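Figure S4 source data
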Amino acid sequence: MSLSGVLTVSAYIAAQMLSDVLSLKIAWVAGFSVDAGTFIYPFTFTLRDLVHKVLGRAAARAIIAAAGVINLVMAALFAFAAWLPPDPTWSLQREFAAVLTPVWRIVVASIIAEVFSELTDTEIYHLWVTRITRRFQWMRVLTSNVISVPLDSLIFCWGAFGGRLPVTTVWSIFWANVLLKGAVTLLGLPTIYLVRERLAGGSGAP
């Protein structure tokens, strides 16, 4: 694997993990309640596109599955650490458990949303570069993200909160996520030019 491939895969996994940890903080931004992970998670779609460009579709699919497993293991480890009896001299057990003990419905909804939406992103990106054009690289990223980002928010919001919060509240969370993720996606578009196209079959290779 090339150095650019190692760096893009590492950045993708790191962004996935960091966004899940940051999502534990609920912030108030422009009149909307948003989790702090929303500020970094949209970059994972563009980072996935970078992996696809450098290593091909099979590698992109593999890192999506790997990230899902890693995030599930991370949540399980947080639950295990919160369950462990604290040292008598350590006074932060309650705070640690309150923040890091996972809510499993939200964890599962998040992972399902991540995997399904980014696999969708993979297929749209692949279709663009194999059936339309390899020119206008920013357009391949924008096209795939315009579909996968709202799909991610739709699955997550209704999977995590549907039936537990009022319908209007769930839709409010959905639109706040889509708008913020869309803005972050636009900021990340130029990064597609940071790596070279895969030579053998390009980004459209199976």
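Figure S5 source data
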Amino acid sequence: MVRSLWTAASGMIAQQNNVDTIANNLANVNTTGYKTEVAEFKSLLYQDIQAKTTSGNGATKPVGAQVGLGVRNSSVSSRFSQGNFYDSTNDLAFAVSGDGFFAYRGQDQNTYYTRNGDFHLATYGTGLALTTSDGNCILDTNGKTIEFDSSIVASKITVTGDGEICYPDASNNPKPMGIKIGLWQFNNPTGLDKIGDSSYAVTGASGAALNEDTTQGLTKSDLRQGYLEGSNVQVVDEMVNMIVAQRAYELNSKAIQATDEMMSQANQLRR
């Protein structure tokens, strides 16, 4: 019976982590570029009560007796399905249609990746640079910061579907500036390390970043200027998942109460 206490307790802990994950999804339902997370579980080790070859009369027994010892969270993985697009008043807002990620250079000079395309122009050296809302420089297809002359007007910048940045000439016709916004893909995006702010870092599990402009065989993404990609959180699904997690938590607590009552009755047998 003591075993059942620990088993049910492990279930309550696992479901609490599940509810925490669901709550985080709901909290980020309006976060640009956020990808919903799913808690996954695995069973703990089993305890052998009777071996497969043991029986009461010594005969061969093909099936043994094992009792499970509970559950634990194995991982919390992100689901990188496409989020809905919505209009933005920002002239430098971009949504990615496809599997690509934007890249930016962090304050520590490392490269990070994001689906949040809410960009801005910020002072950089003697000119301007395309940056995230936190001031981190966006990278082009060559892995270099995207810089402009200080006379550039943000509202006049246009970007083609493949990321080519254009600016009007003297005749007010958009002309390519020779700069393309970089987009990268990963063999296993679920393996990316979540660092907050809808950003990710490369890990051994994710594999190296694959440049869409230079890597053969990739299905290239499409950029939509004037739009942002919302989170892919489905509120109804999350509410259903929360109800299921709550019921599972309640059932485990009932198992603890039942075990407590059984132990109490066993202690009273001698009276």
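The first helix runs from residue 2 to 27. The mean pLDDT is 90.
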